[in-house]
Amino acid sequence: MPRPKRKAAVPTRSSDADSSARPEPKKPRGNQFNRIDQLFESYVNKTLGLIDPEGIEALCNDVNVNHTDVRMLIFAWKMKAEKQGYFSKDEWRRGLKCLGADTRPKLKKAIEGLDKELKVPECFEDFYSYAFQYCLTEEKQRSVDIETICELLNIVLKSEFPNQVNLLVEYLKVQNDYRALNMDQWRSFYRFFKEVDFHDLENYDSSQAWTVIIDNFVEWLKEKEKN
Amino acid sequence: MERKTIDLEQGWDYMQKGITKLKKILRETHDEFMLRELEQRWITHKVMVRWLSRFFHYLPPLNGVGLTCFRDLVYMEVRANARKGVITLIDKEREGEQIDRSLLKNVVDMFVEMDKYEEDFEVQMLEDTANYYKSKATKWIEVDSCPDYMLKAEECLRRERERVTHYLHSSTEQKLVEKVQHELLVTHANQLLDGVRALLRDDKVEDLSRMYRLYQKIPKGLDPVENVFKQHITAEGTALVQQAEEASSLVRKFIELHDKYMTYVNDCFINHTLFHKALKEAFEVFCNKNVAGSSSAELLATFCDNILKKGGSDEAIEETLEKVVKLLAYISDKDLYAEFYRKKLARRLLFDRSANEDHEKCILTKLKQQCGGQFTSKMEGMVMDLTLARDNQMKFEEYLQDNTHVIDLSVTVLTTGFWPSYKSSDLNLPVEMVKCVEVFKEFYETKTKHRKLTWIYSLGTCHIIGKFEPKTIELVVSTYQAAALLLFNSADKLSYSEIMMQLNLTHEDVVRLLHSLSRAKYKILSKEPNTTTIWPNDTFEFNYKFTDKMRRIKIPLPPVDERKKVIEDVDKDRRYAIDAAIVRIMKSSKVLGHQQLVLECVQQLGRMFKPDIKAIKKRIEDLITRDYLERDQENPNTFKYLA
């Protein structure tokens, strides 16, 4: 049986070991390179060689964005950060190069405007999947617990689908069938919000390939409407 | 006689004069008389032409010219009236009057020779026929009962066919019959179908046969009849289910119902596949309904169990088993039936309740034929184990000959995979039995090494001698009951908790066995207080005074309700089966749409059970989590196999 495609492993110090897994961003020219690295050093945990949660907290203070803000998640996405709460040097370089920021003020401005990055649907889908992936903290972990899912839904989808997210979160909290969900089920939520009109549930066809939790959710919605 | 010669001109002249005279006559006469004249003249004309041809044989053939002549000069004028005349006579005959059939035949023949049969005669005749029967049908349908109406319809069709042979052209038959059928049978089909319901209800076999015969010739004519047939059977079957109070009578009633309507299919409906299908679909509807909490699968298994315990003549048993297996074909949860059957078979075999080994083998053969080898392989294994056990027991008894310190013991070794799973218990065996078990273990090891024996005492039987004051009685009890009773060899009075502790059984088991010994038919133990339910505070005493007219009595221990466990086990097996099917299908297809996957799944598993879509979806979900499949991101309704 194949192993899960993405391993949530602790990132290594050096960049060489990872070079086969991800395409190396083009090495920025001289000074820019140094400034980005210097910024990294200003937050890094010296023993680990990584930016740890404390460092991230400091960063959040500097850019004036809460660490639970969706923009920090987008930032992590831009970096393709593998482990929640930690940024490696490569990831940092990648992220800042992407944002075109090499000084603290530039970084602050870039992070503040990150929510606009998601306007393009293909980007959003990629980010949406990433958000789930980011919550898989243990090796071989395939599902995320319901509570975290609910938080994630609020962070990631609430701005676009406020009513739907509220209803779904309500349902997830009362149902007993699932205590954790996998990536496929996570993805089905977004697809469902996009494709199905909550006012037109009669046309919903449970014999199609919708996930069982969505089928159950629709049944629950229909019951709710009756009462 | 003087020879008269005529020349061509003269001959021709005669003919024309004759024709003119004919025309005059035809204009002035009507109906039948007209037809007679026409017939006469037509016959004469034909004769004339024939003679002329002979006289003037050296000329090019005159037939064509003769006919043309007749057609142009006579036929064209006369045809409308001739047609009307014929049709009138036909209608008269329909009303029952006698008519001159040869007259009609000749006149019709004229139309044929004129090569105008269809356009000048047939079309009108058919239309008239349609109108005639339309009005008849309208009248009859109001007045006549369904059977009477059909009798009339059948008769009309017969007469019309006869009509064709007597004086119409054979090519008309098909069209004529279609017209009549349409007016009599198709237009009023709905009303007649209401009649079918009554016929079925009143078992009017003859009339149903007629209905079949009549509608069979009409394209798709049988479809509504089949539908009514199916609905009727479904209603009767469903009523049986709703009124049923207990299992065995219901299965018998199903069998009777099936026999009854199979006769209809064979006799009235001449074995037509459409009606076989109707019967099958009807049974599939109500044979899968639950009765008083039990599924039909369980009911059927219980029915088989009862038959095989009771026994009977070989023929009677074989016949009943044959019918039962046929019913099984209609049940969708065949795997559930198999599991119940297996559980009950185990009890029959182990407690020696089976009436006849041949009967057991008989039903297994039939089940195998219908459901395949895999269905019966475990059951066959069970029966085989018993046969082997007998041989083994003989060898064990030989082995025991040297060892007289052991009580009589017979052991049946069961092959784990074949038999239902049983909990092994930690029963504290009475001392007397412990030694036997040890001896058997030694014996078994001499024959087969490296096998683990797990003792299932809950399935054992013991014969105990009860030395009661009035008289000694042999008690045939289960091992659990025996273990409890033997405790009283060393104590007069025991409390519930003492018993439980010494036996090392669960509350459930202790309550059951104490109940069977103190509160059931035979009260071997007396209980204090003397209430019906067994409570942890009760105390028990050996009932010295017990007696019965028999010398040996059986004290059964009622089995635990196995229904829940069976359903659990079957559900588990189904999950595995669905998983296996999905993986198999995806492995060969590599990429498959959801709808198609579900369809193939249901098809593959259909022999054993009908998986519901939700169950399949859940398994797909699980397989995605386990990385057997993934959803195609471009087409979320499609899945891909992950090698």
UniProtKB/TrEMBL annotation, chain A:
Pfam families: Cullin_binding. Residues 15-27 have a biased composition (Basic and acidic residues). GO terms for molecular function: cullin family protein binding; ubiquitin conjugating enzyme binding; ubiquitin-like protein binding. Residues 31-222 form the DCUN1 domain. GO terms for cellular component: ubiquitin ligase complex. It comes from the Eukaryota. GO terms for biological process: protein neddylation. Residues 1-32 are annotated as: Disordered. InterPro entries: DCN-prot, DCN1-like_PONY, PONY_dom. Neddylation of cullins play an essential role in the regulation of SCF-type complexes activity. This is Defective in cullin neddylation protein. It comes from Arachis hypogaea. The lineage of its organism: Eukaryota, Viridiplantae, Streptophyta, Embryophyta, Tracheophyta.
